[in-house]
């Protein structure tokens, strides 16, 4: 039993609203600032800043299924077979409302055009982040459906 525990990684994702995800896994893949990063049990301690992107988790109890979570930046800390992700916001694929995400994408695209016409760089930057978040949510939901 002790050997089994050494091959398991606990993955938890926390936002200001609370715990979004907490499961035991064989593998977690995140989109770090420097590229994709795959973490398995017994990984050396690491702290990595995250981009807006998808987190994929291969759970121990569902080896043929990946959980997908849309994460909006933050960071991941790995130590003692625990991968903790702290993010401003995160949403599991099963909880994403695709029509709301697509509406958010359309709003962001409209705001980008408006900001470009007004030469408003602050609004443009905010709208571009909103667009990346909306597209991430759409992609996570669609990837999970296939």
From TrEMBL:
Q: Where in the cell is it found?
A: Cell membrane
GO terms, molecular function: ATP binding; proton-transporting ATP synthase activity, rotational mechanism
Q: Which UniProt keywords apply?
A: ATP synthesis, Cell membrane, CF(1), Hydrogen ion transport, Ion transport, Membrane, Transport
Q: Which residues form the ATP synthase epsilon subunit C-terminal domain?
A: 95-140
Which Gene3D superfamilies does the protein's record reference?
A: ATP synthase delta/epsilon subunit, C-terminal domain, F0F1 ATP synthase delta/epsilon subunit, N-terminal
Q: How does it sit in the membrane?
A: Peripheral membrane protein
> Pfam families in the record, alphabetically?
ATP-synt_DE, ATP-synt_DE_N
Q: Which part of the chain is the ATP synthase F1 complex delta/epsilon subunit N-terminal domain? A: 9-90
Give me the Gene Ontology terms describing cellular component: plasma membrane; proton-transporting ATP synthase complex
UniProt signal peptide: none
InterPro entries, per database record: ATP_F1_dsu/esu_C_sf (IPR036794), ATP_synth_F1_dsu/esu (IPR001469), ATP_synth_F1_dsu/esu_N (IPR020546), ATP_synth_F1_esu_C (IPR020547), ATPsynth_dsu/esu_N (IPR036771)
Top-rank taxon: Bacteria
Q: Relate the assembly described in the record.
A: F-type ATPases have 2 components, CF(1) - the catalytic core - and CF(0) - the membrane proton channel. CF(1) has five subunits: alpha(3), beta(3), gamma(1), delta(1), epsilon(1). CF(0) has three main subunits: a, b and c.
| Record function comment | Produces ATP from ADP in the presence of a proton gradient across the membrane.
Family, according to the entry, reads as follows: Belongs to the ATPase epsilon chain family.
The UniProt entry, under PANTHER family, shows: ATP SYNTHASE DELTA/EPSILON CHAIN, ATP SYNTHASE EPSILON CHAIN, CHLOROPLASTIC
Name the record gives this protein: ATP synthase epsilon chain
């Amino acid at each position: 039993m002790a050997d089994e525990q050494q091959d398991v990684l606990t993955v938890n994702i926390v936002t200001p609203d609370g715990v979004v995800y907490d499961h035991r896994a064989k593998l977690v893949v995140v989109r770090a600032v420097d590229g994709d990063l795959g973490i398995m049990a017994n990984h050396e301690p690491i702290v990595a800043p995250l981009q807006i992107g998808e987190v994929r988790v291969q759970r121990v109890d569902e080896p043929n299924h990946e959980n997908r979570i849309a994460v909006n930046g933050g960071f991941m800390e790995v130590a003692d077979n625990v991968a903790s992700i702290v993010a401003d916001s995160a949403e599991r694929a099963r909880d994403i409302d695709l029509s709301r995400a697509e509406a958010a994408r359309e709003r962001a695209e409209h705001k980008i055009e408006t900001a470009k016409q007004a030469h408003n760089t602050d609004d443009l930057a905010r709208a571009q982040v909103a667009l990346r978040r909306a597209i991430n949510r759409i992609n996570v939901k669609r990837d999970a459906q296939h």
